[in-house]
Write a structure and sequence with these properties.
The complex is a heterodimer of chains A (about 120) and B (about 120). Chain A has about 120 residues and is mostly beta strands. Helices cover about 0% and strands about 50% of the residues of chain A. Classes of the chains: A mainly beta (about 120), B mainly beta (about 120). The interface of A and B includes residues 42, 101, 104, 105 and 108 of A.
Chain lengths: ~120, ~120
Amino acid sequence: DTGVSQNPRHKITKRGQNVTFRCDPISEHNRLYWYRQTLGQGPEFLTYFQNEAQLEKSRLLSDRFSAERPKGSFSTLEIQRTEQGDSAMYLCASTTSPGGALGELFFGEGSRLTVL
Amino acid sequence: AQTVTQSQPEMSVQEAETVTLSCTYDTSENNYYLFWYKQPPSRQMILVIRQEAYKQQNATENRFSVNFQKAAKSFSLKISDSQLGDTAMYFCAFQGGSGAGSYQLTFGKGTKLSVIP
């Protein structure tokens, strides 16, 4: 399967713990996105990378959140000192970088976080 | 900031019938892009159809077509000959043509479509 892969698919943690999610994009895609989706809502933009550079971060991304994409390949999203409000589905998506339109985003199946 | 509104939280349609999902958006830009994404239950989101704002012709993809009304800032999705596999959440999304909004999608809250056999 050459689609976007996310791990773990589901994480249950206690409030105050740290969690890390991993995303492996489609190999030739140089743009990688993280979105958060809560129940009954559409995905909300968190951050994106072009190759290894993190080019934009949403104000939703508090200082407890950090994302990396070393060497422009896989990406990790870490949440420190988790809070119950962090419970959500974290979606990763990748695409190529055309000159104009964003192009089709290819999404992974998501990592669902439950904070107790 | 751009906003995307989907006013129909849930809809249902009989198999083989036609259904239209509504989407309105707010922007001050003239050039932008609009998308419909489908999220089947427990599966990843996939692109259904996209429309460039500078194109007057409505986009079509097999059974899926859009009605793009730029002046009204409306972008509805029509699904013809509905199939059971069309059961999913449908999200309307906006991408700006310039600036920070051009690097991300802004999604609506979604419409849950159920196709009834």
